């Protein structure tokens, strides 16, 4: 360890408690780190592509998650190794930025590390490898720009968007209804999109799920769905042209903030107190009526008395609605959230064409649909599924599809999927390698080999012979100079991804290559790992 000797040859110690620390240096450190990174990538490799497998993860408290989404798998895996944590971060940042391609980015980083290991064994300095990778990623990045295509769509012609969302959904468990789900995702995004500013606020799309029914029953509601029912069973279940008062104050008698005691020693005093309370409730309900409200949505609870009064004055009400849902209701109906009864006025009410309560199956579950709103900029996707895991997984898949639609609205360039973009980049990087003198040339070639990992994994997962398939497609791309040839995962009979309608967003692919290269550079630059002792 860090031993130093003074002029009399006595050792003195520099690091604290060094006998307890473990330390890896030089090539050993790099190899250990690369092994950790490869191990994580190997886990995700099998869940890439339309024939990819799902992973089942059990959390410490016994919750089971079944998922195909790279970011979710790594989040739930609870890794301990530092380098493996970098891989988790990598897929998380892809998830935050793009929303799709979280598995591919980790597979890509794993392949780069594998190639780097071979170069390090040949005695090439890690920094030179990292620099070569950096050059190669720039070449690949620019090449993607060149092979990408612009994708024209409008609010009337949404077919291109739907096709791209279908590609995303085809690798998920929901791929039997991918057409329907892709259309739902695209319509939801277009409903809240600001096409002039090319911006989409995904917060306005609420994804609700309910166990029961079948996947095909999933629907898009131009309005809000709240998992609540009317506060009194006898209130009307259907209100047309509703004027909605959105309150954040409880229907309860005021409680004094300070510690006061009310002494009641006679029946009369009790009567007056009760009358006082009743008057108070009367005023509350009257204020709501005066403002012209036909439905009250409240964040807090009601007293039974208030509930009873609301029933008598036939003013339907919903209680215990969460804050986020209140905001969405306010956005959708164009109402204001009112904190005090005194501030209620007709212009602060939200308007909705139809509010109805809907019950499901034989269960007692009821939900409130608020539809035909004044401002339909908030929509709800309502998912049904056979069991809880299915609903959760569908939510995650739809999130990916929503993100893809949003990215296409922001930047409508696409590349073709099925590994075709990676193979094309690989060929471009391979040819560019000869132009670089010096050791970097090796690293650039290795980068080209690493790019082949994604199509290889696709072929492997689809049960095709991986190397034969890849070389055939690569030869075809070079011969016809057609960058759209990819791996035919679904056995359609054609390698041309343009005919198969398999698309990916350009920014998603570019982000994958950049992020993977950055992480690999970081891992390669570590040459000394000092870790505390194991207890």
From TrEMBL:
It catalyses: ATP + H2O = ADP + phosphate + H(+). The keyword Transferase does not apply. It comes from the Eukaryota. It holds the Pfam family Cpn60_TCP1. It is found in: Cytoplasm, Cytoskeleton, Microtubule organizing center, Centrosome. CDD domains: TCP1_epsilon. GO terms for molecular function: ATP binding; ATP hydrolysis activity; ATP-dependent protein folding chaperone; unfolded protein binding. GO terms for cellular component: chaperonin-containing T-complex. Keywords: Acetylation, ATP-binding, Chaperone, Cytoplasm, Cytoskeleton, Hydrolase, Isopeptide bond, Nucleotide-binding, Phosphoprotein, Ubl conjugation. InterPro entries: Chap_CCT_epsi, Chaperone_TCP-1, Chaperonin_TCP-1_CS, Cpn60/GroEL/TCP-1, GroEL-like_apical_dom_sf, GROEL-like_equatorial_sf, TCP-1-like_intermed_sf, TCP-1_chaperonin. Belongs to the TCP-1 chaperonin family. This is T-complex protein 1 subunit epsilon. It comes from Panicum hallii var. hallii.
């Amino acid at each position: 360890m860090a031993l130093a000797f003074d002029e009399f040859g006595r050792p003195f110690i520099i690091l604290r408690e060094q006998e307890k620390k473990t330390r890896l240096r030089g090539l050993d450190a790099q190899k250990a780190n690369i092994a950790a990174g490869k191990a994580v990538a190997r886990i995700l490799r099998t869940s890439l592509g339309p024939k990819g497998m799902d992973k089942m993860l059990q959390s410490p408290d016994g919750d089971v998650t079944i998922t195909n989404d790279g970011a979710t798998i790594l989040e739930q895996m609870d890794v301990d190794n530092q380098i493996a944590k970098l891989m988790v971060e990598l897929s998380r940042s892809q998830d935050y930025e793009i929303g799709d391609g979280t598995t591919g980015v980790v597979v890509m980083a794993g392949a780069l590390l594998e190639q780097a290991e071979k170069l390090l064994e040949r005695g090439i300095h890690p920094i030179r490898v990292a620099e070569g990778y950096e050059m190669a990623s720039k070449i690949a990045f620019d090449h993607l720009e060149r092979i990408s295509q612009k994708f024209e769509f409008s609010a009337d012609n949404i077919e291109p968007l739907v096709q791209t969302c279908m590609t995303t959904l085809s690798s998920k468990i929901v791929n039997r209804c991918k057409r329907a789900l892709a259309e739902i995702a695209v319509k939801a995004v277009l409903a809240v999109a600001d096409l002039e500013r090319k911006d989409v606020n995904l917060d306005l799309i609420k994804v609700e799920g309910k166990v029961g029914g079948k996947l095909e029953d999933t629907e898009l509601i131009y309005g809000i769905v709240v998992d609540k029912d009317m506060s009194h069973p006898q209130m009307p279940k259907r209100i047309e042209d509703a004027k909605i008062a959105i309150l954040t104050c409880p229907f309860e008698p005021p409680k004094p903030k300070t510690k006061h005691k009310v002494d009641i020693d006679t029946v009369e005093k009790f009567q007056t107190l009760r009358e006082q309370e009743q008057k108070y409730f009367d005023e509350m309900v009257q204020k709501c009526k005066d403002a012209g409200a036909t439905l009250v949505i409240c964040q807090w609870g009601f007293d039974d008395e208030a509930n009873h009064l609301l029933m008598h004055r036939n003013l339907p009400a919903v209680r215990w609605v969460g804050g986020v849902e209140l905001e969405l209701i306010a956005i959708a109906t164009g109402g204001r959230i009112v904190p005090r009864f005194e501030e209620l006025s007709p212009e602060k009410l939200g308007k909705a064409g139809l509010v109805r309560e809907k019950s499901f199956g034989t269960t007692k579950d009821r939900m409130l649909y608020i539809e035909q709103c004044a401002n339909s900029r908030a929509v709800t996707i309502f998912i049904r599924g056979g069991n809880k895991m299915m609903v959760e997984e569908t939510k995650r898949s739809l999130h990916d599809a929503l993100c893809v639609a949003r990215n296409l609205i922001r930047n409508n360039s696409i590349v073709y999927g099925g590994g075709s973009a990676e193979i094309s980049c690989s060929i471009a990087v391979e040819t560019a390698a000869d132009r670089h003198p010096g050791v970097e040339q090796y690293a650039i070639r290795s980068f080209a080999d690493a790019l082949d990992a994604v199509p290889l994994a696709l072929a492997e997962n689809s049960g095709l012979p991986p190397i034969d398939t890849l070389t055939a497609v690569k030869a075809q791309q070079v011969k016809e100079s057609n960058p759209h040839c990819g791996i035919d995962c679904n056995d359609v009979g054609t390698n041309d991804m343009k005919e198969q309608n398999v698309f990916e967003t350009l920014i998603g692919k570019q982000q994958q290559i950049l992020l993977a290269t950055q992480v690999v550079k970081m891992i390669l630059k570590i040459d000394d790992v000092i870790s505390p002792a194991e207890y």
